[in-house]
Amino acid sequence: MLNTAYKVLSSDADIFAAALAQVKVYVVQLVEGKPHVIADYAGPVQKWTPEYVLLAGMTYRRDEFEFRVRLPKK
Known about the structure:
The chain is mainly β. The protein has one helix spanning about 10-20; strands spanning about 5-10, 25-30, 35-45, 45-50, 50-55, 60, 65-70. The chain has a four-stranded antiparallel β-sheet, with no helix packed on it. A three-stranded antiparallel β-sheet has the order 4-5-6, with helices on one face. It is globular and about 30 Å long.
């Protein structure tokens, strides 16, 4: 995924748009506030709150993980 363009889903609007589009969301674990490792190639957003995002039946804390979607190649 290093050479792949992606968008970080940081706002509720970003997550809402990803949920509507049912795009595959990647979960990246944060260590000391910085992206560290891909934790899961989860799938579409099922539910979200200001604190959590539910993907593929797994709940992730928004302050501990970063959520990304791949951007289409141009």
